């Protein structure tokens, strides 16, 4: 049986929400949803306060996700302006550069206000207005925060693309949302290495005729060629004022698009809107992390993922927090870096991914114990299931047994945490994200859609809307409905498997669809397969997940070559490099097996179940292979398994 960690006394006494409080919030959300949500919404600063809350329906006939529809607000004003009067001189953003020898930078709310206004005026001068899409392809530098918040200020829709994506992946995302303007930097830096962001944008631009303006932030000072469409940010910024009114936005006006991988096809543009999203980011940041003024909050994600959106920027800033942004890598210059940053900035709460913990754990405790870490009060994780061993290491070694571990389960689609502990209210079990937050309605179902009660294992659904829910797939409402609301009619299907124990605790078991969670990042098997088959020597490819000690899941690719092509190690590395170039390093296969044939049914469908088993090394239980068109291919696959 899993052991339980009770709420520590200091938390039981001092937290905003205690056990009774959590139960009361959940009960209120059930009993009077409208009253509950309108009351919660008051934590934001509304230009016009909403009088309606949830007007969503998951049914096909009147399908819609809509919250606080008659309210008006500006998200950037909520994150900055409203804090000016009482904490204008408090630090809003701490920037810790890649190189520890360099000085950190600090921006007060007042300074952030100026920077964001200036960025907003630069965008306006370029003709960007409400509803226009701006693609942001920046490293983890303060300008990334300024650019994002500047879009929110003027009502432009940002689409942040992770700096690790290739020119091709970037071009696809620029095209999909039809953005005419990209903000980038000369180069990015990570772990002492340079990332040629501007060169990547140049390569992408060749494929996107509609891209007419590229604004380049000078980050490293590298020489980069400037074409007709390119402008230096610092030159444009010199000519604009630091005063820019915040655009009043309807609660349901779009705030951002963020591309994420699914089971099939190209990445989807997940759309979040203004009111509900900001409320959810802000509320969950408070519920899960109980932030207090003066504390230093550090979410060690990249701004290119939803965690960076919700918990580096929107949630904490809406709550008036001091948020730390880190340009570097946990393992550079050595495995002590995270803990040194914690000490240097007296970080109170650290929020990171299990994969980072596993990478640091294997370097040994000395890198941790050499540091002080006494400023820490809470530790959070997100992005993938955390194995109990990593959980205990985080709790016992990093937190010296003092800090509750806040394991938050959620998704790009959910906007913020959904199943998670509250530090003053929830006893913890290593490996469990614990309980649904107030207002969140999960259900477990079997394959047929029968709802399972009590202790059970099945597929995880959410049966009614919550404020942070995504509103649509950009430009494709039908794909939104088909992807999430047709597997189990009337509910949102998460794509995750989950077990609920006798105490009602939820244990996420991982994706049950064709999404692989690599180091906490989502990768669609179909995307990697399409990249592989683009190679002239490849006839066919099938990609599955496999267990990986640090990444959680790795990528295992089966490749069938064209007739007459020799399978050798040189070609194997060439194909791995190829995927890296086509999509980005996060998509590079960890194992690649040449397969003369793939296991297919007589109707030609690849049997991924068998491929998964072989990749996992679990070849004793391949199940029934008699329905295969050619059962003999399986013997070859088993015999030539790699890794
Ligand atoms: C997985 C990241 C277990 C899950 C915020 C989900 C988790 C996918 C957890 C979403 C967790 C996220 N425990 N699994 N605490 N958090 N996941 O969209 O499979 O990048 O569906 O959002 O990550 O990944 P995404």
From TrEMBL:
CoA binds at residues 190-193, 307, 519, 580. Residues 82-465 form the AMP-dependent synthetase/ligase domain. PROSITE patterns: AMP_BINDING. The gene is acsA. CDD domains: ACS. GO terms for molecular function: acetate-CoA ligase activity; AMP binding; ATP binding; metal ion binding. The lineage of its organism: Bacteria, Pseudomonadati, Pseudomonadota, Alphaproteobacteria, Sphingomonadales. Residues 527-605 form the AMP-binding enzyme C-terminal domain. It comes from Sphingomonas guangdongensis. This is Acetyl-coenzyme A synthetase. It catalyses: acetate + ATP + CoA = acetyl-CoA + AMP + diphosphate. Acetylated. Deacetylation by the SIR2-homolog deacetylase activates the enzyme. Its EC number is 6.2.1.1. ATP binds at residues 383-385, 407-412, 496, 511, 522. It is an enzyme of class 6 (ligase). It comes from the Bacteria. GO terms for biological process: acetyl-CoA biosynthetic process from acetate. Its cofactor is Mg(2+). Catalyzes the conversion of acetate into acetyl-CoA (AcCoA), an essential intermediate at the junction of anabolic and catabolic pathways. AcsA undergoes a two-step reaction. In the first half reaction, AcsA combines acetate with ATP to form acetyl-adenylate (AcAMP) intermediate. In the second half reaction, it can then transfer the acetyl group from AcAMP to the sulfhydryl group of CoA, forming the product AcCoA.
